[in-house]
């Protein structure tokens, strides 16, 4: 149909008003960065301005509006697709509106947006409509005007308008007329449907894990990893700023912490249980291991900057590594938990961050130690066989020592944690093989009715700290071995030696083993200076936890051996402290 002149004029006037009233928003100018700025530069500028104009910090007039502009600008520039769309289809000033095309401007593409976070926008091009917006809010559309090279749409009145489309098409699109021939833009319902689709999340949002009750229980609670957690409700302003801070901290402490967010609108019960429900703004927490082996949530209340939050996170990293002095540490002591042990030797005055992280990741799989040493000339370092620092020394659960790595060089936190994790995984695998071999030896001896022969590989399990009293039968010939084994086997089956271990409530108080005295003379020397060299058969009752012993060198008869062991159990004999820690070769 024909459009009357007054109506055409009115519509034309309306378009001019929209054009003139469209608010200019140049995201580069708002953040104070140039168009070639890197994501790092954009992020730094955003952090600085957000902190300056955050409503909780700045109560001046216009701060709220400025804060919204900053968030909107960052929303565009932090998303690669949005930034690309802006650079391609916006004008030089970034002034959203209805702009005529010019030569070389992709046929007059432009876009309109109303400003503020969470908008939806579209751009029109040869490939059709593309969604550009955020999480809802005002709708905005792009119109292609007839600049050189741009497509034009013909109207029913016989020709295109100076804007590159027929006025009739506007009415058919927005008011439902002329549905048969919709022209370039289609009907309004398609716009409405597209406007509800979600945009690609910003990179910082994508890196933050949404946490529910199950995830918190399985992946966070007492798992040894430090988490930086955000509690919020969707209605809060400034969530993007918190997320950007978290993403930067996660990048700086890559592999050392994880980040997550809890939506207290959908996870209300979890937020109540954890006491993390936000008030008027989001809240930041660290799942910390600073105080004990049990994790707990600690709230961050400092200035919202990446540097300060990073420091807070570092302070709450696990502290499962025991700081020791090499001069006062018994390196040959057995591991009560029967885990392999690892020790870091470095010149650092405090436990390094990398070692603290690893102590959390491998908690309850290794026992961690660390010590400050000045150089490799230190006698204690030489004794360990370390020739370069920093170094990691490991002990298998059977007491066997290994230099895992020396002269350690670190490129960055992320690669260091990954490299050392590979090292620890390999050592743990080796320890499992040793433990499996040791178990097989014990089972074989038990099946054959024989007493196990004490070696370096099974000492920890047979005469380690978990054994209250270890009865060691030392022999120097095959004949004396057979005699001792027969006597101890008989005595071990009698009730006098079957008293329950008070500490465990289920294990025997005594452990019976044999020792080849000719091959382990230095071991016996830890009890008596001469190592009982002149005696063919000897019984030693050894208390590993107390480091004390008593020896029996009398007649090796069933009656005398029973009497000796009974006196040991009843406390009727005097124990003597060992000369040194007995170590098997």
From TrEMBL:
Alphabetized UniProt keyword annotations: Signal
Annotated region described as Disordered, given as residue ranges: 120-159, 187-207
Species in which this protein is naturally found: Gossypium mustelinum
Chain segments annotated as coiled-coil in the UniProt record: none
Occurrences of domain J (ranges): 26-90
Superkingdom field: Eukaryota
Compositional bias of kind Gly residues: 120-137, 146-158
Signal peptide: 1-24
PANTHER family: DNAJ PROTEIN ERDJ3A
Comp. bias regions, Low complexity: 188-207
Pfam families: DnaJ
SUPFAM superfamilies attached to this UniProt entry: Chaperone J-domain, Thioredoxin-like
Name of this chain's protein: J domain-containing protein
